[in-house]
Amino acid sequence: MAHWLVIVCCLSIAFSTSFGQYICPDGWNLMPGGRHQCIQVFVANVTWSGARMACETQASRLAIVRNAFENAFIQHEMSLQNFGDMWLGGITATPAPGDVNDWFWEDGTTDFQSYMNWDSGQPDAYEDCGPNYLEACLEMRSNGKWDDNCCAYHDGYVKGYACSMDAEQS
Question: Domain named C-type lectin: which ranges (predicted)?
Answer without folding.
Answer: 34-158
